Amino acid sequence: MTPSWDDLRVFLAVARQGSLSAAGTTLGLDPATAGRRVGRLEAALGTVLFLKSPQGYALTEAGERLMPHAAEAEQAMACAEDAVRGQGDRLAGAVRIGAPDGCANFLLPRVVTEIVAAHPALEVQVVALPRVFNLNRREADMAIGVSAPTAGRLTVQKIVDYRLVLAASRGFLAKAGPIRRLEDLRGQRLVGYIPEMIFDKELDYLGRLGVDRPQIASNSAAVQYQMVRAGAGLAVTHDFVLPGEPDLQWVLPEQFALDRSFFLIRHADDARVRRLARFAELLVAGMRREMARVREALTEASGSVDAGEGDRTGHAGEEPAV
């Protein structure tokens, strides 16, 4: 019996995810169906591909030997899908992006909307999670990261720079008292990441403010943002959230700002898939346009404050807040 592509597809998902249930979720199959597909493939090849244990499914030696050939078949099918669906410059099919939740919540919505408007047959899935994505397990077609990986068969492209800045709601600052220098943050309520759940070294920044643990914490940048909007305290947040939230004020702009970058991370083999390569181009260009818009908005806001709105935190004679 000749192995079918459908069975190889399930084999790859189980090998990457380590369980039938996780593979089934990825492929839209129930675990029992995924198990039957694996059994059918093993019968066709006349060998056992997985060893089952309480920890999940692990590849046998035969399974390990099959992996590169199955991955090659996967790439061939992706290229064939590109050829069949070819509509000139129009893209079609599904693309899944993994992104940190701050980027996914505040930067990607406008970018993805513009791409889909230009390519109506394209299905874009944005998976927003506060962790690093594993592209080798095909958790996503591509991922946006806050640092560049140094291992694995991956291609890495710098997308755009951004800044992490200190911000709080105007209501909170009205009650907090003057904040003229970093030392004035002592005794103020800070919002930040749960220290044990920081997933990237680039997000471990509270030490620069002289703080070991924030009083209010979340593993999600979006939750931290909502806490700050509610007046919970000060937080280090992305500069690109400020133009869309007039009640948030940039605090100590001359004394604290961290330069950071977003990187587009892709599996090296996907360079041959035209649909993914073209989508990556559109994504990078869109994010750069969006950040240029943010920069312009921040510059305009700074100019309006300089023109005479006054320093809302009460430090006369210092650089006004944005």
From TrEMBL:
Record's compositionally biased regions (Basic and acidic residues): 309-322
Q: List GO BP terms, alphabetically.
A: DNA-templated transcription
Which InterPro entries does this one have? LysR-type_TF_proteobact-type (IPR058163), LysR_HTH_N (IPR000847), LysR_subst-bd (IPR005119), WH-like_DNA-bd_sf (IPR036388), WH_DNA-bd_sf (IPR036390)
**What Gene Ontology molecular-function terms does this entry list?**
DNA-binding transcription factor activity; sequence-specific DNA binding
Annotated region described as Disordered, given as residue ranges: 300-322
* Keywords noted in UniProt: DNA-binding, Transcription, Transcription regulation
Pfam families this protein is in?
HTH_1, LysR_substrate
Q: What's the protein called, per UniProt?
A: DNA-binding transcriptional regulator, LysR family
